[in-house]
Fold this sequence. Notes:
six-stranded mixed β-sheet; alpha/beta; single chain
Amino acid sequence: MAQLRIALAQANATVGDLTGNADRTVEWTRRAADRGAHLVVFPEMFLTGYPVEDLALRKSFVDASIATLEATARRLADEGLGELAVVLGYLDRRADVVDRVGQPAGAPLDAAAVLYRGRVAVRTAKHHLPNYGVFDEYRYFVRGDRLPVLRLHGVDVAVAICEDLWQEGGPVTVTREAGAQLLVAPNASPYERNKDDVRLELCARRAREAGCALAYVNSVGGQDELVFDGDSVIVTGEGELIARGPQFEEDLLVADLDLPAAPAEFTPGETPADGHDGTTITIERVLLSPDPVPAYTPEEPPRAEPLGDLGEVYGALVLGVRDYVRKNGFRSVILGLSGGIDSALVATIAADAIGPDNVHTVLMPSRYSSDHSITDAEDLVKRQGIHSRTVPIRGMVDAYEAELELHGLAAENLQARVRGNILMGLSNEHGHLVLTTGNKSELATGYSTLYGDSAGGYGPIKDVPKITVFALCRWRNERIDGAHPFTPSSETPPIPQNIIDKPPSAELRPGQLDTDSLPPYDILDALLDDYVEKDMGRDGLIAAGHDPELVERVIRLVDAAEYKRRQYPPGPKITPKNFGRDRRLPITNKWREIVAPHTGDPARVAKRQTAEDA
Length: 614
């Protein structure tokens, strides 16, 4: 057997910050060296951040990435870290590909390099390019076709990148033929609910397929709508868990591996291999250090416990808000606090993300605001220690109505638009980032006023269904002991119980309740999940047991609100299909699952519905 101490740098990169990410590379490599590691692996495209999107098509950015990689290799050696092998993700290009129509300009590569003794010892690139969900990698990259195998301290180490684990064939399959004892996989795999169990099972299966131990390092941090949750793992060649990193936190996961000794003979060079996916993979063998490390006493590897379903959702929302605020140069946020459950959850997430002293709220009561809404909002402010001010809107709304003679729905929406103007004005004056408070159920059905409650810079719960909003509030109130990494300790629950218990209402007219125009949220959210997440059509929804009349009504609501969702700010993705990068339907679209029987004209149905709920 051969021993090897590996460190997985589950670290938070910022897209485009090449200098800062290079500094982080050196810092985390030093930490790994201090822990006695022989190999440190960083996440996918750590040097550039991920995803870089159309920056990959910009020659200046690719050039800067390559230059920074080479400078980082030299810097590591200059700072006494050259003997530690470093696997670092970056953006590269293929020099042997001629530009042509239909191929990404400049032939960019989602690449990884091994840095050792002041130089770039080997380079590789992702073979399988994902083109589903939030991924558009055929737009940005060309395919890699190499599997590097490094002889490091008597162990043969192969490198494959992210999607190469998720697809059959390619580098993982060739790893077994190459006879590697360890496969390392840099990843930037975005979070969605229950994905952690899927990943662990995937890693176990691929380790068995490759016939060797597998070390999977995942990025952590927020990037626009994506949140990367860490949860790095190391498994044996039989798929048994060795070590696991925490979720949503930076961490250096260090583990001692006992691996089969590599064959004594090692011939550097290239060998073609069948990728079993219709491609040829070149095995590139590189000698770094032939001799095994002297025997040492291994440490017990850490195994972080998963946070649980609601715990990981809350962690994703907090981290998404924190990084969007921090990485975009804001120091504070502002939101409207209505006394309702949605704004209560957003305020709580913001306070946990950036501290209560950086959270500003505005109470904007109208003629229809109930006394308990005002007192509930004031109670929440007191419990959490956030800032608040009260700006009554009745006089402003009356002035608009007198000038414009608005009635009914137009008058209701006017209240939301006045509130949006107030928040944006205070944002401009004080430099706060405006947080919107709409949830996924509202966005799906169009219950969101354009230029009103949709006005803002970031939507923390835009991908959170209403029933999950209630569940998260109850869960958060039960976490006041500080045991969860994203819930600071407090003497009292942060959200007043009356906010959770009372029926939801927009309070835009006397006695209004959400159930006046929508079914109970447990029924609505189940239907929305089937229509939005699973793309079921009308007949499929009815066959699944949903009420036919409700199916037709909800389909009309969802379809007619597409133009609204396009104008809503970004927010953290937690479901398999968020409104944003995941779900892309045309706004101008005459296809309808439902044709109104009295008109037979789907375009007229859409036009009528748009006028009703804009």
